[in-house]
Amino acid sequence: NGVSAVREVLEGAIEIGVPYSTLYAFSSENWNRPKLEVRALMELLISSLTKELKTFQQNGVKLKAIGNLNDLPDNIQKTLNDTMEATKENSKCTLTLALSYGSRTEILDATKRIADQVAQGTLKPEDITEDLFSQYLYTADIPDPDLMIRTSGEQRISNFLLWQLAYTELWFSAKMWPEFTRNDLFEAIFDYQSRERRFGKTSEQL
User: Fold this and answer.
1) Which of these, 2, 23, 91, 102, has the minimum number of CB atoms within 10 Å of its CB?
2) Contact 167, 177 (CB under 8 A)
3) Which long-range contacts (CB under 8 A, 24 or more apart) does 162-169 make?
4) Which residues, other chains included, contact 182 with Cβ-Cβ below 8 Å and sequence gap of 6+?
5) Looking at the DSSP assignment, which residues form a beta bridge with residue 171?
6) Residue 20: its pLDDT value, please?
7) Sign of the torsion angle spanned by Cα atoms 15, 16, 17, 19
8) Can you give the pTM of this predicted structure?
């Protein structure tokens, strides 16, 4: 049911012209769940990627993935890489799967890479800007989200895109993800469209 929800919401996003969608599929903290559950989730991921390839191709979806992908089992990495390779020329929508992903780790990794360049003398500290820092994140080639939808009645970010969500609009749903439909997506976007995004400015400045 969760996979069906992904398909329906993705098709709904494409229908109304959303060019980028990111799905928090498996967090770095999820490895602490019972081994049987983790194994089942990994098997579901493999079967879903294989079955949904046709849907991706029909809808012009390019698949990407972010996170500590080397932590994934070898067969998952192969299936994931094969699917990304098969869809790399698609351009209607980019679907990014966050797998073994944790935003704090992402920020630490970016910081270490920048620190290494400073230590080597190839980067000056005064040249470090927000834009430059963003280029060291896993999401360097996709824009920051405009809208973050959180299902299941939870009202927290759960270590997801902490840097990228700085000015993102948040929308919460009491529905569990397998119950989420394209109409729920449309409701969230309709609500988003009614909001005033000021980015620190006043209404009069907009």
Assistant:
1) 91
2) no
3) 162/103, 162/104, 162/107, 163/103, 163/106, 163/107, 163/133, 163/134, 163/137, 164/134, 164/137, 164/139, 167/197, 167/199, 168/144, 169/195, 169/197
4) 8, 9, 11, 12, 15
5) 149
6) 97
7) negative
8) 0.92
